[in-house]
Design brief:
Oligomer: single chain
Number of helices: 18
Number of domains: 2
Helix content: 55-70%
Largest sheet: none
Shape: elongated
Distance between the termini: 51 Å
Length: 368
């Protein structure tokens, strides 16, 4: 008797993809998507084969699949799809499925994955911050000029913030290790591989300039918005690190004309502009921009509110607003929300894409 291949579809995966696009099973495997995609490699073209795997719910073929991370959801394949299947939206859903799959602990991923659980997700940082302030003995509104350190002492803030950030880094690295192991299972290894360091150098242009966005024809405006958010957030991280240093060396609060403060305000402008463009495109050009998932909106709105609250915190201190400490508390919730849930949101998307691109380069021979 001949061996039989038993297909065991992942129903949860099929449900998730169906949420992204209910008509995804209308794919007729014409191959247009792979032909028109300028990012699809000749030796392992996508997304045609991924559409087959998705239709059958073959999660084992899609978890740790490096090719889905080469897609930037520009919409070129969607524009030429004769059945309106929107392959780019399907690949976006598969990427979300991947970083949620590797996220630990699992219950955190579930909390972030459903809008109904959003109040619980917000409540967690609220409770953590409240307990820390209570333990510091400053759970009250200070009198006199606005001084945030009298509400949340810098020693407590910096210690707890750094601890939680490091914990999230450890959790993320654990997921990345499992992701890398699965990539090795799916991607054939050539006789000669490239070192991780050289692989990172190969994709430096992609990281620094987001060059692959330029190859997409349908949604080239995405590149400018992504660059603004990318560099705005990096600048903001740098300013945060300097603020921690300034607090430790008794040089805080910073004056309005301090270079770090100016850099922080520049980062805020970049984030406002970048997230603003993304939000506008998603609302005004739904057909061309692709379907936005709950995860997309969660990250965009979180970043926008984080930036807005940060600007308001700065204004409240300099103008001595009576609502300053309430605004500061809300800002802290948003900061910790983004940090705590980074592995389970589209921040994880960025991390896993970078790892996948490095892996692909490590398996790609390149002539001198």
């Amino acid at each position: 008797m001949r061996d039989m291949l038993i297909v065991e579809p992942d129903i949860d995966l099929i449900r998730k993809i169906k949420t992204a696009n209910p008509s995804f099973k209308n794919c007729i495997q014409c191959g247009n998507c792979s032909v028109v995609c300028t990012l699809s490699p000749e030796d392992r073209p996508f997304p045609r084969k991924e559409m087959i795997y998705a239709s059958w719910g073959l999660s084992d073929k899609l978890v740790g699949n490096a090719n889905i991370w080469q897609c930037y959801q520009c919409g070129d394949c969607t524009q030429y799809c004769p059945r309106g299947v929107r392959p780019s939206d399907i690949l976006s859903a598969l990427r979300e499925y991947n970083y949620m799959y590797y996220a630990r602990p699992r219950f955190m991923a579930k909390i972030l994955g459903k809008p109904a659980f959003l109040p619980i997700a917000v409540l967690i940082p609220v409770i953590i911050i409240s307990l820390i302030i209570y333990a510091a003995g400053t759970f009250r509104i200070p009198e006199g000029p606005v001084n945030y350190s009298r509400f949340f002492p810098h020693s407590w803030l910096n210690t707890t913030f750094t601890t939680i950030t490091l914990a999230m880094v450890v959790i993320t690295m654990s997921g990345i290790k499992k992701f890398w192991d699965n990539l090795r299972k799916h991607f054939p290894s050539p006789q000669k591989t490239t070192s991780i360091f050289k692989s990172i150098l190969r994709i430096r242009k992609e990281i620094v300039l987001h060059s692959s966005f330029s190859e997409c024809k349908t949604q080239r405006s995405r590149k400018f918005a992504h660059l603004l958010v990318f560099y705005g957030f990096i600048l903001l991280l740098g300013v945060t690190a300097y603020a921690i240093y300034a607090a430790l060396t008794q040089r805080y609060p910073l004056a309005l004309w301090n270079p770090a403060k100016i850099t922080g305000n520049l980062a805020a402008i970049m984030l406002f502009t970048g997230t603003g463009i993304m939000i506008y495109n998603r609302l005004a050009n739904k057909s061309g921009y692709g379907k936005s998932s709950y995860s997309d909106w969660l990250l965009l709105i979180s970043l926008f509110l984080l930036t807005l609250s940060g600007v308001m915190v700065e204004m409240a201190r300099f103008l001595n607003w009576t609502s300053a400490y309430f605004i500061y508390f809300v800002h802290l919730i948003l900061v910790w929300f983004i940090i705590i849930y980074a592995p389970y949101t589209k921040f994880g998307h960025f991390i896993y894409r970078t790892v996948a691109l490095v892996f692909i380069q490590s398996r790609t021979e390149k002539s001198n």
